[in-house]
Every structure is written in structure tokens, then in C-alpha cells.
Amino acid sequence: MRSNKLIVPIILATSLTLAACGTKEETKKEETKTTEESSNSKPVSIADGAQDMKQVLADMKTQLTAKDAAKVKDSGTELEEKWGVFEDSVKDKSPDLYEKVETPLHTIEAGAKVEPLDTQTLNKAAEELDGVLTEVQNLK
To answer: Which range has the worst mean pLDDT, 11-15, 55-59, 128-132?
Structure first.
């Protein structure tokens, strides 16, 4: 009689243990896949990366005019992602120019997350970043 009472808790404990092991395996597989994808991506030239960022900035300026906070937030995130692809190359070649990009970029990132949007500050930072990206494009 006593063994019958213990069967349910033992089965429950065993199933929870096995379920937890399966989750760890899936997580490891996903991490490996993400690492492989990021290492297989083509390197982007500095000029191409800067041009991509300038395009996102142009879109962001349109979104600011329309006061579309959600799209401005997405554009701020996209700018950071595009910058992350080639920022190390810029940092290696010109640390001063790297810092000049980082300053308005951080302003845009932070400002894009704030509601209501401070369009004046975001436009000013976007103009500044656009000018610096022109310098970055000319970096050899």
C-alpha cells in the first residue's frame, strides 16, 4: 500500500527532470546555430555600412516628421545593429571618428525610446550623425 502512494511523486519528479534536460539541449542547439550564422555573415565595408546607416537615418527623419514613435524606435534599434557590423573597423582606423559617431548615435537610441518624442533633439542628432557618416564613408 505504501509503495502505491510513492509511485505518483516518483513519476512526477522523473518527468520534471527529463523535461528540464530537454530544454537545456534545445538552448545549446539554438546558441550554436546563432553563433554559426553570425560567423558566416559577410563582412561589410565601411563605406557600405555608412551608406546603410544613412538610409536608415533618412527613413527616421521621415518618421519623425510623421511623429510615428514606434517606427522611430525601430529605426533607432536598426541603426545600432547596422553600426555594430562595422564599428570595429572604424575604431581600428580612426578612434576619433568612432567617438564622433557614438555620441549622436547614443542620443538617437535613447531619444527614440522616450515618449513623447523630442523631435528637435532627434533631428539635431540625426543631422550630426549624417554628417559624421559622410566622413566615415571617406575613411580609407
So the answer is: 11-15
